[in-house]
Design brief:
The chain is mainly alpha-helical and 177 residues long. The protein has one domain. The protein contains six helices and four strands, in the order ααααβαβββα. The chain has helices spanning 2-16, 36-47, 54-71, 78-94, 103-108, 149-164; strands at residues 99-101, 120-122, 136-140, 143-147. It has a two-stranded parallel sheet. It has a two-stranded antiparallel sheet with strand order 3-4. β3 (136-140) and β4 form a beta hairpin. The longest helix has 18 residues, at 54-71. Keywords: Membrane, Transmembrane, Transmembrane helix. Pfam families: DUF5317 (PF17248). This is DUF5317 domain-containing protein. The chain crosses the membrane at residues 6-22, 29-47, 53-70, 77-96, 143-164.
């Protein structure tokens, strides 16, 4: 859901500054077909009846996303997405294939304590790299969510991919000598 807010915000700001919001669609992404694989895997992890495999499916989705981002590194915004996805993948893999989630963050985000999904696990004293887990509460615009620092990098990168690529590229002709 936050991704949708990020995309809408980037489009609105692009329109305010009179940028061409269709330009990002003309960006020459490499391996574009690969972006759909993580999306499908995420849907399977959340809505499929996969049990303990959900975290590993999510990890696989992130690894494919990282490969896509590395391949598109030179496109404005992708370095941020790559850093965020890598950060999230590390903490998920180190914690048994699940993203650690702080109980305190659940409360501050306005989420019920039983709002767990197959991709998350509540933090304990044995959680590895807890500061990289979902410790940032988001509670505004009727949006109740817990996210990680890695997520913030991904959101920033997504915003930049859209907004910075709305600027028209102007090529100057070399003066003939």
């Amino acid at each position: 859901m936050i991704y949708l807010y990020v995309i809408i915000a980037a489009i609105i700001i692009s329109l305010i500054f009179k940028q061409n919001v269709w330009n990002p669609l003309n960006t020459q992404f490499k391996w574009l077909y690969m972006i759909f694989i993580p999306l499908i895997l995420e849907l399977i992890a959340v809505f499929g009846n996969v049990g303990d495999l959900a975290g590993y499916i999510t990890s696989s989705a992130y690894i494919i996303l990282i490969l896509f981002c590395i391949r598109n590194w030179k496109i404005k915004g992708f370095p941020f997405i790559t850093i965020g996805a890598t950060s999230n993948t590390i903490v998920i893999l180190l914690n048994g294939g699940k993203m650690p989630l702080s109980q305190r963050t659940l409360v501050l985000a306005g989420l019920p304590a039983n709002t767990m999904d197959p991709k998350h696990v509540l933090m304990t004293s044995t959680t590895i790299l807890p500061f990289m887990g979902d410790v940032i509460p988001i509670n505004f615009l009727n949006l109740h969510y817990a996210c990680s620092a890695g997520d913030l990098f991904v959101y920033t990168g997504l915003f930049l991919v859209i907004y910075l690529n709305t600027v028209k590229k102007i090529y100057k002709k070399k003066a003939e000598t």
